[in-house]
Amino acid sequence: MRICWAQYALWAVIALLGVSAMLSSGCGAKGPLHLPGEEQQDQGN
Hints:
Helix content: 55-70%
Order of helices and strands: HH
Strand content: under 5%
Structural class: mainly alpha
Radius of gyration: 22 Å
Distance between the termini: 72 Å
Largest sheet: none
């Protein structure tokens, strides 16, 4: 069975969309970039 060029293009688009969704999933994530315990230790000294 021979696969036509349109099927290759479809798989390429699906792969590209999947990779871009994984890479952009971190965008928009908010919150502290440190562990809560670190700030408490610094304030106590």
